[in-house]
Amino acid sequence: METKVRCKLTSLSHFIETNQLNRIDFLKIDVEGAEMDVIKSIHPKQFSMIKQCSIEVHNIDNRVATLADFLREQGFSIKVCKNPMFESLGFNHHMVYAKKE
What we know:
Oligomer: single chain
Largest sheet: 4 strands, mixed
Strand order of the largest sheet: 1-2-4-3
CATH class: Alpha Beta
């Protein structure tokens, strides 16, 4: 039996505007394949208010490099880590850490 649930979505940019945020110390993203959609929903001017990010990524179609390159273009320094536990199970799971200097 399949269950469908409708839910309202919003972009991260809209959430930032609606809640009048002017600083984000730490942004955690775990969206099962939609990482670039979420990151690219942020208005370019809003990246200056984000200090650090932690993003879970499954490296399909070169997603890790694409995400890391995009974040570098936004002024972040990047560290990519593979989780050895997931790697031993055959998962191509990475954590991308981004920090403004």
